[in-house]
Write a structure and sequence with these properties.
By secondary structure, the protein is α+β, with helices and mostly antiparallel strands. The chain has 4 helices and 3 strands; from the N terminus they run βααββαα.
């Protein structure tokens, strides 16, 4: 997300383009506190702060990076080892 997009609001279709899950999963995540709460801009207009969505994307990205490095520290990953074995055969 560029610095210009960190200011302002995003509607649900824009949020789901950046964080591709179903609408029901998104709303369930809001209810459980996983995802940021929306802001009411009007009677029938709900949006999310772009900064909140940017923080969510960064947090998820960092968690994925930590998970990948924990799964495959200094040794080659199992998948890489399999590929190496197939290349030898």
């Amino acid at each position: 997300m560029s610095s210009q997009q960190k200011v302002g609001f995003l509607r649900l279709p824009q949020v789901l383009e950046l964080f591709p899950i179903s609408k029901s999963a998104w709303w369930r995540g809001i209810k459980t506190g996983i995802y940021p709460k929306p802001v009411r801009l009007g009677e029938r207009c709900t949006a999310w702060r772009a900064s909140d969505i940017s923080e969510l994307l960064e947090r998820v990205s960092n968690q994925n990076a930590e998970k990948e490095s924990a799964e495959c520290p200094a040794k080659p990953c199992a998948a890489a080892a399999k590929e190496a074995n197939h290349a030898k055969a």
